[in-house]
Amino acid sequence: MKKLGFIGLGNMGKPMAANLINSGYSLTVYDLKPEPVQELVAAGAAAAGSPREVAEKSEVVITMLTSSPHVEQVMFGPDGVLEGLEKGATIIDMSTIDPIVTRKVAAAAAEKGIKMLDAPVSGAPPKAADGTLSIMVGGKKEVFAECQDILQTMGEKILHAGDIGMGEVIKLANNLAAAVAGIGAWEAFLFGTKLGADPRTLFEVMSASSGNSWVLQTRIPYPDVIPNCPANNDFAPGFTADLMAKDLGLILSAAGAMKFPLLAGSLTHQMVEAAKANGLGHKDWSATCKIIYKLAGEEI
Known about the structure:
single chain, alpha/beta, Rossmann fold, N-(1-d-carboxylethyl)-l-norvaline Dehydrogenase, domain 2, six-stranded parallel β-sheet, three-stranded mixed β-sheet
């Protein structure tokens, strides 16, 4: 089995790295926070003091970071991954970032004889923990094939999306659809309940009708209607409003560069930004429903 490195041990990265350890991989880990590093060392990983040290000890380096600037710093910094990897090694960036940055990193890696996949994921921390993430992978087919065993340790549905950067494109398109659907679902609940509908009845009917969606099944505004819903636990994340705003910003930036409008996407981005401005950035992105209700003079 190949020697692996993992950089970025947050809510998603830590359980993903744990699955690699549990599958028998030799894993070197790095994060700015010492606590997740210590937990994974106790589980069998080795700690590194920098991204470069991770790379020096690895044949494949996996990154799971929160933003494009973080990825650039980890890759291009003086103690970065590209300073430590040897020719023939592979980078798998599982962050959700700007596809342009992905291609910039891949080009720099290729100049050093290093292969790269972009492999953003869909699924919350529980899916990261049980290894059932959906993973959208961009890059050369032969590199994708070489890394299948590694990816299958972390995900259940793994799709080759095309050339480098296409994993990011498809992941962002998926998040756009989910976010816009969220606004529709929450407005539907506002409309229905304001006119007297019971939330449970409304959910039951919409679930069996054309208004059904993944957002409806996981992120309705009312607590105790469905299990494992953020509203049941004061909108504890899941996927934060901060992260959804970041992704929608990437989407609108790319659309702007290509000179086409995203009307629903723009409105949705403003709604999520409003949630952030009201102190909800650290909450699950479905807390945006609070803004929709607030505009109607309601509290939720």
